[in-house]
């Protein structure tokens, strides 16, 4: 009986084939991963027909998805610009999980430009968004961090030290598809601390789907991810240091470390910045009061000091069923101090002013997110923000022995915010899918300002308020692919927003309303050379919590800022049609309409000699524009890009103090970028970029002069591409800030502000380990702060 059983097993082993798994990693001679390399397996003796195939990922990892029968094979790895590597493989029942790693040698006969063009495209269009592959886009550019990487995206530029997306009236920056809970300044500080090597893609969405828990335009920074059952557990780190010289010197340093296991990813980030900047203003004005014209000249200047500590820690766990759980902590700890002097001449009477501000702020954020394999995403976010500020002002008349006027402020804000969200998507038959979700935000703020004027309480500027805000948002939508060429995504969201403010025993309603927000994305790919995308979006922006308080803030003997408890949220309705020719050239006509737009504007009082600044709602702002992107090459060493944005601008306010305005203009913004290869050995690259705006801009009653920027940088890469030294010169002519003037219905002034933006910097970047990055999640505190 035993003999028969042994015979049967032997026969079955001959009939039923045994199988093996094949995987490995492909790198170049510098140990850099090669993405999109072709891996082909041929069954010998026939070496002409590919039996199995695979492609390497961003880590250079490949794996054949099929189980390979035992036998004799030839394994070939090829990629444009490298010599094909070959290995002979014998698979038997003893080697069930074989790993073959390859190091590809460069093919000197292939031109450099072909090697670059053979890699992943820098831009592609899919699912209502434009995706830019950052490793390709930033190749050889003098860029060290995520903030500077964003400025390399066509149509994204820095204006007035803020990132803007041309053709939109505002946008949200996401990190791995998650909305932040930080102030704009804090978010920008964090982006400057994230190494550019951690970024995989940047997605531009002119109409973000509601499952992102935002509305309107968005820029999504997607950090690199790696992990998998067959991938090795690895560590990677990067250290960056930068010396920055403006009028004064500043220093920045950061260190990051990431562990990526088969199912667990952990990352940590710390950055420190010590900044010192100088700024100055020249104000000239003619102020009419009681029929008398007062000529005013004011010179002011000051020094701002700022220290920032940023800490990020995050954990991601992937389960066997492909569910993912994330938890992260963000801590930001800042300390600011500034001193300022001003000399104000009002028709021969000169007042000297001294001011100073100091105080810390801190933010703690904990965020948890869970994504299920069946389309469910839910999460919670808690933020505690605390900001304190001490401020003093002293006004002294030069020709008087009278005691100087003195004001001292002690201001404090505490914000506690809790956010819950849940989204569900379902894939249906015939390429239909539906999604729906809910978002809740509850905020409690305490705002306090104690002001002493000449030794006594100054009641006009003293307040102690508490604000409660509750926002419920529901959405539903669908997407449908009608063919490989046509797809549509649409949704409708309803938002109920309710906010109150309590001061003493009085409780006031700030707002209590419902708003509806439609979105639409339609993509039509007529051919690879002709791509169209229609985007319709709507959004709402809330004022900062501090702006809604009755604060009175004097900053000179002539200037004062007022809060406005009557501020309303502004809404934004946008539509744009993007046409992409040959996946390079872009034309985008668009229109934005913003009722209740708010911004801070000046007004020369009819009752006293002071210029008042207050945020107020317009009747509307509207702009209609045309955006164009044209890339081109100059020889073999220069790659360039021209971006042009021309728009018709219309602003109207029927209730601006005692004067109304209805103003229109046409303005243009033009960008140019050049990437230049100076040398291959040593590896030296240069970038020259800049922009200019026409002197026809407006903002309310302001007329804005021309502005521009010219910047350049040189990058030296060495030590097998692990180290870089970058020398940069930003805003070489210090022309980013335009002159702002007013000459409208008796209001007349001109402000020439010097902002310390001309910068020379030297950066050193060193990478160690062998990974490609993880996802990080953020926070929205855009409405926090007393400063």
Structure report:
- The chain is mainly β.
- The protein has five helices and 48 strands.
- The protein has a 22-stranded antiparallel barrel. Strands 10-11-16-17-14-15 form a six-stranded mixed sheet. Strands 1, 4, 5, 8 and 9 form a five-stranded mixed sheet that branches.
- It is globular, with a radius of gyration of 30 Å.
- Mean pLDDT is 84; it is low at 1-17, 108-119, 226-230 and 771-778.
Short note summarizing the structure:
With 787 residues, the protein is mostly beta strands. It is 5% helix and 64% strand.
Attribute tags:
single chain, 787 residues, mainly beta, 22-stranded antiparallel beta barrel, 5% helix, disordered N terminus
- Class by helix and strand content? mainly beta
Count all strands and give the number.
Answer: 48
Tally of individual helices: 5
Work out the strand percent. over 45%
Main sheet? Answer: 22 strands, antiparallel, barrel
Taking Cα atoms only, what radius of gyration do you get, to the nearest Å? 30 Å
Based on CA inertia axes, which overall geometry fits?
globular
Strand and helix map with partners:
Blueprint: H1 2-15, E1 19-27, E2 38-43, E3 50-55, E4 61-63, E5 68-69, E6 71-78, E7 85-91, E8 97-99, E9 102-103, H2 112-117, E10 123-126, E11 129-133, H3 134-137, H4 146-150, E12 156-159, E13 162-165, E14 171-175, E15 178-179, H5 184-193, E16 199-205, E17 217-223, E18 234-245, E19 249-260, E20 264-289, E21 292-318, E22 324-346, E23 349-371, E24 376-397, E25 405-427, E26 432-453, E27 456-457, E28 463-481, E29 486-503, E30 506-527, E31 530-541, E32 552-554, E33 559-562, E34 570-581, E35 585-595, E36 598-604, E37 611-617, E38 620-634, E39 638-653, E40 661-679, E41 683-693, E42 697-699, E43 702-704, E44 707-718, E45 723-730, E46 740-744, E47 747-754, E48 759-769
Parallel strand pairs: 1-8, 1-9, 14-17, 33-37
Antiparallel strand pairs: 1-4, 1-5, 2-3, 2-6, 6-7, 10-11, 11-16, 12-13, 14-15, 16-17, 18-19, 18-48, 19-20, 20-21, 20-47, 21-22, 22-23, 23-24, 24-25, 25-26, 26-27, 26-28, 28-29, 29-30, 30-31, 31-34, 32-33, 34-35, 35-38, 36-37, 38-39, 39-40, 40-41, 41-44, 42-43, 43-46, 44-45, 45-48, 46-47
């Amino acid at each position: 009986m035993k003999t028969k059983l042994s015979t049967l097993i032997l026969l079955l082993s001959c009939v039923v084939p045994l199988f093996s798994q094949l995987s490995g990693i492909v790198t170049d001679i510098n140990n850099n991963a090669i993405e999109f390399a072709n891996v082909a397996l041929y069954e010998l003796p026939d070496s002409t027909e590919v039996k199995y195939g695979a492609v390497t990922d961003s880590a250079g990892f490949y794996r054949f998805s099929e189980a390979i029968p035992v036998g004799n094979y030839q394994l070939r790895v090829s990629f444009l610009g490298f010599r094909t590597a070959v290995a002979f493989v014998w698979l038997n029942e003893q080697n069930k999980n074989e790993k073959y790693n390859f190091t590809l040698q460069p093919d000197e006969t292939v031109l450099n430009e072909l090697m670059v063009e053979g890699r992943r495209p820098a831009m592609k269009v899919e699912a209502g968004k434009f995706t830019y592959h950052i490793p390709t886009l930033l190749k050889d550019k003098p860029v060290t961090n995520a903030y500077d990487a964003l400025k390399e995206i066509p149509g994204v530029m820095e204006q007035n030290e803020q990132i803007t997306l041309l053709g939109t009236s505002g946008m949200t920056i996401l990190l791995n598809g998650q909305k932040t809970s930080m102030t704009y300044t804090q978010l920008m500080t964090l982006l400057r601390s994230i190494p550019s090597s951690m970024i995989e893609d940047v997605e531009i969405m002119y109409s973000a789907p509601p499952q992102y828990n935002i509305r309107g335009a968005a820029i999504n920074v997607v950090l690199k991810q790696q992990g998998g059952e067959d991938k090795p557990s690895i560590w990677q780190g990067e250290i960056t240091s930068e010396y920055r010289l403006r009028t004064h010197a500043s220093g920045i340093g950061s260190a990051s470390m990431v562990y990526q296991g088969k199912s667990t990813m952990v990352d940590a980030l710390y950055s420190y910045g010590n900044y010192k900047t100088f700024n100055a203003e020249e104000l000239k004005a003619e102020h009419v009061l009681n029929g008398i014209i007062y000529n005013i000249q004011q010179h002011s200047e000051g020094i701002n000091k700022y220290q920032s500590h940023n800490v990020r820690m995050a954990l991601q766990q992937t389960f066997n069923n492909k569910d993912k759980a994330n938890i992260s902590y963000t801590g930001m700890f800042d300390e600011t101090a500034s001193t300022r002097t001003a000399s104000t001449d009002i028709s021969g009477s000169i007042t000297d002013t001294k001011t100073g501000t100091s105080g810390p702020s801190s933010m703690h954020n904990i965020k948890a997110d869970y994504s299920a394999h069946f389309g469910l995403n839910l999460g919670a976010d808690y933020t505690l923000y605390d900001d304190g500020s001490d401020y003093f002002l002293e006004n002294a008349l030069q020709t008087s022995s009278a005691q100087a006027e003195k004001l001292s402020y002690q201001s404090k804000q505490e914000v506690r915010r809790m956010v819950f969200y849940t989204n569900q998507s379902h894939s249906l038959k015939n390429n239909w899918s539906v999604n729906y979700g809910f978002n809740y935000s509850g905020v409690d703020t305490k705002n306090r300002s104690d002001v002493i004027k000449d030794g006594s309480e100054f009641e006009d500027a003293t307040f102690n308020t508490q604000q409660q805000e509750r926002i419920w948002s529901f959405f539903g939508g669908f997407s449908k692919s009608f063919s490989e060429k046509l797809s549509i995504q649409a949704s409708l969201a309803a938002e109920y927003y309710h906010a109150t403010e309590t001061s003493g025993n009085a409780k006031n309603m700030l707002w209590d309303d419902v708003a509806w927000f439609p979105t639409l994305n339609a993509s039509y790919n007529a051919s690879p050379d002709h791509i169209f995308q229609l985007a319709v979006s709507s959004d709402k922006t809330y004022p900062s919590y501090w702006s809604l308080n009755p604060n009175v803030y004097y900053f000179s003997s002539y200037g004062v800022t007022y809060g406005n408890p009557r501020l309303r949220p502004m809404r934004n309705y946008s539509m744009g049609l993007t046409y992409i020719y040959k996946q390079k050239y872009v034309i985008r006509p668009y229109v934005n309409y913003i009722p209740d737009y708010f911004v801070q504007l000046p007004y020369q009082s009819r009752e006293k000699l002071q210029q008042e600044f207050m945020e107020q709602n317009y009747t509307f702002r509207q702009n209609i524009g045309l955006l164009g992107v044209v890339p081109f090459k100059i020889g073999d060493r220069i790659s360039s890009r021209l971006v042009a944005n021309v728009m018709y601008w219309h602003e109207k306010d029927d209730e601006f103090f005692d004067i109304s305005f209805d103003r229109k203009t046409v303005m243009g913004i033009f960008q140019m970028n050049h990437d230049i290869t100076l040398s291959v050995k040593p590896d030296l690259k240069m970038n020259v970029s800049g922009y200019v705006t026409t002197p026809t801009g407006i903002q309310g009653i302001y007329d804005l002069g021309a502005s521009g920027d010219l910047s350049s940088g040189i990058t030296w890469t060495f030590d097998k591409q692990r180290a870089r030294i970058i020398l940069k010169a930003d805003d070489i002519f210090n022309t980013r800030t335009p002159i702002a003037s007013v000459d409208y219905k008796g209001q007349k002034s001109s402000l020439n502000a010097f902002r310390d933006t001309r910068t020379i910097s030297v950066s050193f970047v060193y990478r160690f380990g062998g990974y490609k990055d993880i996802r990080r999640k953020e926070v929205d505190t855009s409405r926090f702060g007393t400063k």
